[in-house]
Structures are given as C-alpha cells and as structure tokens.
Amino acid sequence: MIYLQDRNLYMEESSSGSPQKPEKTKYQLILIAALKKEIEIARRLDPEKLASEIEKTGFSCQYCGKCCQRAFGDNRVVLTPSEIEKIQKHTGLSKLEVAGPLIPETCQPEETGNKEEGREIDREISSMQPEISETDEEAFSKPSQLFELLREDIDSQGNIHAYGWMLRRKRNGDCLFLNKDTNRCRIYPVRPMLCSTYPFYIEGLKLYTCECEGFGGHISKEESRKLAEALLSRYIAELEDTLAMYEKYEDFEKDKEGLEIAKNNLEKGTCVYVIHDSKGITKMID
Ligand code: SF4
C-alpha cells in the first residue's frame, strides 16, 4: 500500500485486492477467453500488410493540434500504467497530476474565459514544475449527466469505479501538454501510444481511422512500416493491459445509499474513484 497526500488529491494503491479472491462470473470468464484469443491472433498480424494499408490511405501531420483540443471532438487519451510512469519520469509530475479516472464525456467545453488558464499551465509544464493550479481541473462535466452515465459503476459506499486512466486536461478541455502557441506536444519523446499512432487505431483486428486533416498526405514506405509496427505494439499492449485488468477485477456491491452518496459528492465536486487497471486498484479523491 502506498499513501500519497498530493495537494488536495489523495491516492491509495493496492495491487492484490482482497486476500480471498471471489470466483469469476461466467461472463467475465468469456471476456477473458475472448481477449486471450484476440491477443494470440494480434501477435500474428502482418505489419507489412498494415503498412501498405497506411501507405494507401496516406497521412502527413499538419500540426493543426486539433486532435489534442476538446473543441474539435473527444480528445481523451487513454493511458496504461506504464505510460503514466514514463510521463511522470519525464516531467517530474505526480501520478494524479498526469492522469485521472477514465470517465465519459458529458458536454462541450466552455469556450470563453478559459484561454488564460490554458496558457498558465503551458508555462508550468514547460518548466517541468510539478505544480498544477486549481483552475486546471476539468470543468466541463455536468454532475447530473455524469451521474446518469456512471450510475452502473457506483458501489454501496458511493465510490465511482472507473476502468482505466486518461491524460489530464486543462479547464477548457485541451490536453494538459499541448503548447497552444506552437500546437506542439510538450512531452513529445514520451507521448502516449495513442498520440504517436493517431489518426490510426486497430479494433477487433481491423484498422480504423479518426477524423484528421492529414489524411491523403504523402507517407513513405519506411514511415508507413514504422507506424504499422507502433500500431501493432499499441494494439497488443492495450489488449494485454485490459486482460490483466479483467483478471484482477473483483465485483462490488451496489445499493441506493451508495447512489445517493455519489450523487451528493458529484454535486459538491469531490468524488471518490476506484480505478481498476492492470496493476490492481487505485482509490483516489478527485
Ligand atoms: S500528449 Fe501531446 S500529442 Fe498527446 S494529446 Fe497531449 S499534446 Fe497532443
């Protein structure tokens, strides 16, 4: 167990769960078996074929920075625990300054009044100071909408269970590490796999693309091959991470009282999250 008092953030990690692990349900066992199968097939995917699909699609980054900004769509960046550690080492920031619980989007970011706050954090990150002002907390999740989206994940104590981590964003929803003046990433050498393979991703053994201004641009054979390899590594790493999370996962009790507690907490803006990942669970107040 590690206890960390982090400004107003509290975190408690546990890798083993309860000593007596409950039996997995039939549904959980099916999910685990399906994931194992998918990993096995994914390991045999041919990077050459993937590279030629990427080359045919064409892609050249325009450095518009839109994929990092909330105003242009869902810019949540899912992170594995090892990616969080890499960013922590590079920036000197704490775990909870880098990442928070992976929760659904509820509404559009506020477009006014937040630009100055965005610039402020840019300066802080550029000097790699582990200081994040209160104003950089996300402010665009409406408590009532969030409660409805999360109600199935609330336990009898009022804790909200989340399944994974996402990169912290500024108050206006932009990625914490986006330099607004240059549209460049401040943590480029350690940017998450999702960012280094954008706008491509693999799901269910198929290649997909996200909306992007860079489509159709020239990409060399060599670059396509590198991107294909990175995509495959990301796909397998994410599947392995999800598998490890399912294997560690333990179900929780739910009741009306828990829902009331969580609803009140959400309205007050202070929630207790239990984050499940490949290493175990992290309990945090956010
Ligand atoms: S980590 Fe870098 S590349 Fe990824 S969303 Fe943030 S600014 Fe963009």
For the termini, the CA-CA separation is 19 Å
**Side-by-side strand order of the widest sheet:** 1-2-12-11-5
Helix content: 25-40%
Radius of gyration: 20 Å
Mean of pLDDT: 86
Total strands: the figure is 12
Individual helix count: 9
Class by alpha and beta content: alpha+beta
Q: β content, as a range?
A: 15-25%
| Residue windows where pLDDT falls under 50 for at least 5 positions | 1-8, 109-138
What is the makeup of the main sheet? 5 strands, mixed
Strand and helix order = EEHHEHHEHHEEEEHEEHHEE
Query: Could you say which small molecules are bound to this protein?
Result: iron/sulfur cluster
Shape descriptor: globular
Structure description:
InterPro entries: Puta_zinc/iron-chelating_dom. It holds the Pfam family CxxCxxCC. This is YkgJ family cysteine cluster protein. This protein has helices at residues 26-43, 47-57, 81-91, 95-98, 115-126, 143-150, 193-197, 221-248, 256-268; strands spanning 2-6, 9-14, 78-79, 99-101, 160-163, 165-167, 178-179, 184-185, 200-203, 206-209, 272-277, 280-285. It is of the alpha+beta class and 286 residues long. It has a domain at 45-140 and 162-248. The strands form four sheets. The chain has a five-stranded mixed sheet. The chain is globular, with a radius of gyration of 20 Å. It binds iron/sulfur cluster. Residues 68, 77, 175, 177-178, 185, 187, 191-192, 195 line the site of iron/sulfur cluster.
Identify the notable features of this structure and list them briefly:
12 strands; three-stranded antiparallel β-sheet; alpha+beta; YkgJ family cysteine cluster protein; five-stranded mixed β-sheet; 286 residues; 9 helices; Puta_zinc/iron-chelating_dom; binds iron/sulfur cluster
